[in-house]
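Input sequence (1623 aa), recorded before submission:
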Amino acid sequence: MLESYVTPILMSYVNRYIKNLKPSDLQLSLWGGDVVLSKLELKLDVLEQELKLPFTFLSGHIHELRIHVPWTKLGSEPVVITINTMECILKLKDGAQEDHESSGSSSTNLSTAEYAKSAVKQRRVQQTSPSDPDLPPGYVQSLIRRVVNNVNIVINNLILKYVEDDIVLSVNITSAECYTVDEFWDRAFMDISATDLVLRKVINFSDCTVCLDKRNASGKIEFYQDPLLYKCSFRTRLHFTYDNLNSKMPSVIKIHTLVESLKLSITDQQLPMFIRIMQLGIALYYGELGNFKEGENENLVCNTKDILGNISGTEDETVSDMQYSTQCINQEPYMHQDDDQQQGWVSWAWSFVPAIVSYDDGEDDFTGTECGTILHQQKSQVLKDPIISVGFYCTKATVTFKLTEMQAESSYYSPQKVKSKEVIRWEQEGTTIEVLMMGEPFFDCQIGFVGCQAMCLKGIMGVKDFEENVNRSDEDAYFFSCGENLSTKGMTYLTNSLFDYRSPENNGIRAEFILDAAHHKETYSEIAGMQRFGAFYMDYLYTMESTCGKVSGNQQDLSSAKSEDFVNMQEMSTKSLIVGPLYLRLDSSAGHRIMKMIACAVEHEYEPYNKPKADIVEGNKTTPNSEEKTSLEEYVPTRLTSFTILKCTITVSMAEFNLLGHLLPIIMGQKSSCGLLNAISFQPLRPLPAIRILVDKINLEHSVPMYAEQLVQTVSSLSQPSDNLLHYCYAHCYLKIFGFQAGLTSLDIRGSYCLPTSIIPSFSTAVYGKLLKFPKYWTKRSHVPQTECIFELPNLTVQATRAQTLLLQTIYQSWFHHVGNISSAVVNEVLLNEVFQTLGVKSKNPLPTLEGSVQNVELKYCSTSLVKCASGTVGSIKICAKAPGDGGKEKLIPLVQGPSDTRDLHSSKWLNESRKPESLLAPDLVAFTIQSPQYMDYCHNSGAVLLASVQGLAVNIDPVLYTWLLYQPQKRSSRHIQQQPVGAVSLGIPVTRKKEDEVSVGSMPLAKQQSNQASEYASSPVKTKTVTESRPLSLPLKAMLTSSETSRNPEERMKECIGTVWNAVKCLTLQLEVQSCCVFVPNDSLPSPSTIVSGDIPGTVRSWYHGQAGMPGTVVLCLPQIKIMSAGHKYMEPLQEIPFVVLRSILEEGDAFPWTVSLHHFSVYTLLGQQMTLNLVEPMGCTSTLAVTSQKLVASGPESRHSFVVCLHVDLESLEIKCSNPQVQLLYELADTMSKVWNKIQKKGMLYQSSVYTESITGPAPPTSPIKSSVGTAPPDTSTYSPSGDFGTTTEADSVQGGDDSPFSDSVTLEQTTSNIGVSSGRVSLWMQWMLPKITVKLFAPDPGSKGTEICVVSELEDLSASVDMQDVYTKVKCKIESFNIDHYRNSLGEDCWSLGQYGGVFLSCTDKLNRRTLLVRPVSKQDPFSNFSGFFPPTTAKLLEGSHQQHGFLSLTYTKAVTKNVRHKLISRNERRTFYKLSEGLNDGSPHFLHEILLSAQAFDVVLCFPLLNAIASIFQASLPKNQKEKSKSPGQPMRTHTLTSRNLPLIYINTGVMRVFFPKTEEMQHDTGVEANQAIKEDTLILKIGSVSMAPQADNPLSRAILRKDIYQMMATVSHSYQWD
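Predicted structure, token format:
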């Protein structure tokens, strides 16, 4: 009767999955009611086809299978299927599978499929065959449905194992039972009826344990890790809703699982393996497995470990079967491209729906499903897709991270055990994962949890900070929290689930689902998600809509769709992630634990699952037609991702201990540390300063095309793609930050934080970026941007006192300054009290606060395949100081203002004219555009471009800035908590430790610690080596040479850099405009009045100038306007759309030089009290030209080099300088103040530098005395060795030869020697020339002789020129002055006219002005004009001096610096060089490296020395400090360093002057007093001193000339004489 209907159903399932079963025996056993089958082998190939996943079964068997069929009570009792001990071992498929399965396994697969189909067909034939007449067909179908709906399945001891590389993942479930329940979810025998079309089932899982272990190369697990999940029980509820009784498939399926407690445990060795398993799940979800390219099979076979060993029990398993078939690969060429998530995991899950819920849908499951991830066939599309809801709910979950260490047993043969220690724990409440899908067109996944928090446990890296014996509160342990807890939130995470008593299913109501994208987004918004979940909410939605109203039936393989298929469907994928208010505290304990987890995660790396394909571009691209192009214009499927953090609070406290030196090398990929860490006694520091960061909202949006490669390939084939299509070819990212603010806070001893002190007030910013997908398709379109980034900053303000910056510096150094050592906690109480003042208590001396703000910053970066460019603007910059004022009011002192209208500030007239306030529509302070080629070879086609414009800037160097800089907290009251090591063992670090670990900025030096404290934390053998050994008192000469060579390395590197960028620089299109920067230097603070716009520096100065008589003295320095233009460039706006092309002829010429540089309106003037303005430097400017040329040198080495010649010509305007005593006094006071400030700052720096490890300084120590410094460094005779000794042979030869045939008479001076050296000898040469028409210096002083008059001394220098010639082997500086005159005038105060002073107003004259007016009372007797050089110098030297005494104007000065080696080479003849080098070989180290020479030549001039005038001039430069500044604390004196003056310290000096006359006139007072009494015949009133000439040369010669008869004998004797002296 019923056996003929029920038995085929059971037999079809059993025979389908189990090998070697005889259907006749099984049928006979079933008729008996009970069947017991033992040691069954599973059909692995059938299981693999059913799973349709890229896994292969290594083994699978069932220990015992029991089937109980209550034939007599089939309508009231369920059929029970019991499986005892089922074990399966899986591994990932690899590429070797294809070669074997293509031939051998295909027949097996085919036969299996045919067998399954035949079994189903036989079942259907039996069902449709004539049945027992006593059982009507309707009753049979109803009974069979009742039997199938109430089948109970019990699995005891289910074991699943997965192996990959060294990973062994095992899942063990002690018991799993599935049975049917009633509406109250109690066990019952139920069936669907016309009134209740619902079927409910429950699956209970008991004691689920998950283990993750590591196996060795032989396949054995040496030691077992703690289980990931231990004995976890959960239950699952299944709810099926049918449309009618005859429905083969339910219309609504709900599968919900609830776990009350989930406790995960991960050790440091399990963490890399756990990440690998997660990557496997992601790869499965995106369908990135199984799509390997041709030619990779051999590599995959070699790289994949297939050593099963004792795990599988079968050592001769076949190699890596069950790879996707080649047919599957060909059908899904885009699966690996992240094209569609549903084609991977979702399609696989969807294919199981008929098999789960219906017994007679097997044919649909087998037809056309040879490949795993394929959409439904046309037949299945005719049926209505059911709605499936899958949910996972967890009440409380914890994840504990543990550190393991090996621990051997007492016995030698006993195995090693692993001891684990908990260090960090993650706790999570109210977790929900819900999936809703209806076929392929709709898929939605929502993940959320109510609250989470993280806490520190035990100790970390030897620091026992949270051990049980350390009394730390739970508040200290928890460093992260987000959301709420279930006690306050309620059970919202179970809303509308099968475990919610309020859900429609539990109240007999049919549930309604939202399957429309627009309605879904409106219902499940961010606000709704945060109301249900307080901590985290994610909503992932994928929809696919057809333009015809339904999905096209021929879309069997979505991934192989061509461009024309976009007409049929529109896909959309959106992902929204929201994180609720979170709090994160990063202290030493939390930071080291997080870094330790990161170090453990990166310590072991695996091969990626999805290997990128090689960039192969197809040559023949099919251009889409107009219809396809129109469809693309209308809609392009994209993936949108939105990540939002609503409110974030991050607190970074000062590091109480620092061992990051052991973790950072591992994270950076370096060799792991091998040093052992010892236990450290930990004591928390209170108060503990910290930085607190608050962010109101962070939003990150990301979009990427869904079919990137297909879209890019199509759009790139278009001749002119639209901007819309180009937009979709990029991956876009948009980051927005709202309400970011930062401040300083402190954790007190009670565990609470004080109110934060604001450092950065709230501001917002945004960053946008886009990246071109698959740039390989755009190689022929170089103008298409590959990367683009835009940064926007509307406003940013930073404010801090000096104490706050010192505290910030202390916090920073606690994390980064003591890397690799235990840093002791040092906190200065005075500093903390100054930063964190008690509420209601006013400070005696409040500190000034600096506040800087920048507004409207917009930056843009763009790169193409040929160029990279950037542009941007900076709206304004303002810096001001807030200082305490009179009456408790705060005064505002502006320091920097930009932009500022400084066009008229070069002259003091603006103080008396009306000035408009700064407009809000002022231009941006900085606007720039820069573009450079990607490759240097491309410079000749597209040169670099730099366009920049800088508006005016006003700077006020106020004394309040000095007050801010010089703040130093008192060090006597610092608190110091020192951490003493326990059980430290030295690892080889020397006793001498870095002193910088003992001194903290703004804190007291540490007490002396044990010398082995640093040694116990050595991390590697390299670090344990001694830094340097003790050096002898003197270094060998070779060491000195080596140090001198290394000192030249930076210069050589600079030259290499210049040669590298030369190709870009020579084609640089340069346009630079910088408006004048006006610097105000007041002697006292200039607070801004309340009537002036905040931060207006010129307005503040003008208000003080007119408003108050007590205006402090101010020096105004107006820097020049700068304009630089390259050759062939026309002016253009500095802000351009990038990338852009500059149309200029310079691209063809290939050289952008010379550059034209113009400077205008440079001036200096002083503002004194009572509206007094005195100029120092009148406005002036200059025009210059810069040219750079290059030529290739003949390569002497393996590579050729360039020689650069830089030429700079400057034409200056006339310079006029005015000076008076009030100005000098003001400048002196300002200079004294700045000098004191600089000395104090330098003193701080020296204190800090003195703590640096002294052994790190290379080179010899500075000598303590001149005598000791030469010991062991050079031969004793070289202490008096002079540069003239190098020319000893030259000098002596000149003194005796008297002729011009001497081999040394061709060149003597360095100036003449270096003139013969060519430019090509060096790599970089510099030639500069300055031309100045006139310099006027006016000195104003009161007349000491008569009150009410003023003296003005005017100095005029005309036609000045200077040139500098710098080569590698010499440097030459030449200066010339055409005329020089000094006159003096006088006038009465209040008058404008000036008259000549005494003695014709002449002080110095280089003309014949005095010769026409002066009569000598006692003329000298006539004599022949003596020769300037006769009798004083030898003939050769006299000839040289006479040659240099040429017509050059008033003064000529030449300074030459040359390399000694090159000068010797020039001075010595070729025949003598070899001998000379042999003689001087031992003295190269003692001789100076450079020779210096000064050649001075002056024409005749007259000087009238009037001593009252000199006194008046001297009074101008007399300045004194105020009384309160004169007292200086005497510092302990230091021994003076004496320097021995030898000829080596002096340059070679050549001086030649004309006639010099000095007049000493009698003063008017003396003439008046002695005029009556003196003899009237005596009229002498002037003393004249006349010097015919002054000549100087460095050579000293014998005045007796002698002739050399035998030159060879003389030369030989001279050589012997020198060799005797040197030896």
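Checked by second reader. The first strand starts at residue 34 and ends at 41.
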